[in-house]
UniProtKB/TrEMBL annotation:
SUPFAM superfamilies: Ribonuclease Rh-like. This is Ribonuclease T2 isoform X1. It comes from Eublepharis macularius. Its main location: endoplasmic reticulum. One of its GO terms (cellular component) is lysosomal lumen.
Length: 245
């Protein structure tokens, strides 16, 4: 073998070793260890309240933000979102998982798949786009947050609620403690605004308590894209549940 050929072969092997390892570490779901799932609702009125755009007439019911692993993100960048794989889910997706901030609805779903779906796909029950979005819709229906809040007398409008009242009401229904996030009071105000509710699940989709003080830092990047970066764990104080932006 000619010296030039040998040299090229050595260089190629070296590049493959470095690049191939890097690609595997950043694309393989198995590299990202996670322990539990977050099923995340957000209140569209509050999302619109935080963003100055043409977000008019948001849905007056809690909608899906996403289904997330607790400690993983962007696990397989080569597994691209394909809306045709969920074409038979689109009617429910548009109703229960709308993007109130962007006219291109699929942008939201693509983001959730790229960032979170590719991570939770380590579970057999979530190892395809169809399974991932179907399971999120199933959990939305199972938790039935909108109906329970209404039955508990917690309704959007002019009334303020003590945060502990909402927390205790939800715990009485689900027998676990969810994480409630709020928009902090604006300057000169004393009332926070409810924005997001997170339910925690084990990997076999059993509800469990959300006991951590804060979600891991990757969620902040998630929130920045969809206008909820200013949300934080609510204080036990008066809480606004707004009915319009």
């Amino acid at each position: 073998m000619k010296p030039v050929t040998i040299c090229c072969l050595v260089v190629w092997c070296f590049c493959f070793a470095v690049y191939g390892t890097h690609k595997f570490l950043h694309s393989s779901p198995h590299f990202h260890d996670w322990k539990k799932l977050y099923f995340v609702y957000h209140w569209p009125v509050t999302v619109c309240k935080m963003i100055e755009n043409d977000c008019d007439n948001p849905p007056m019911y809690w909608t899906i933000h996403g289904l997330w692993a607790d400690k993983a993100e962007d696990c397989n960048k080569s597994w691209h979102f394909n809306v045709t794989e969920i074409k038979d889910l689109l009617v429910d997706m548009r109703q229960y998982w709308p993007d109130v901030l962007h006219t291109n609805r699929t942008k939201f779903w693509k983001h959730e798949w790229d960032k979170h779906g590719t991570c939770v796909a380590t579970l057999k029950s979530l190892n395809s786009q169809k399974k991932y979005f179907s399971k999120a819709l199933e959990l939305y229906e199972k938790l039935d947050l909108n109906s329970y809040l209404f039955k508990l007398g917690i309704k959007p409008g002019g009334n303020y609620y003590q945060l502990s009242t909402i927390q205790e009401a939800l715990t009485s229904v689900y027998n676990v403690t969810p994480k409630i996030q709020c928009l902090s009071p604006e300057q000169g105000e004393e009332v926070q605004t409810i924005g997001q509710i997170k339910f925690c699940f084990t990997k076999d989709f059993t509800l469990r308590n959300c006991t951590e003080s804060e979600v891991y830092s990757y969620a902040a990047h998630e929130n920045m894209l969809f206008g909820t970066e200013d949300l934080s764990v609510c204080n036990d104080t008066l809480t606004n549940y707004p009915s319009h932006v």
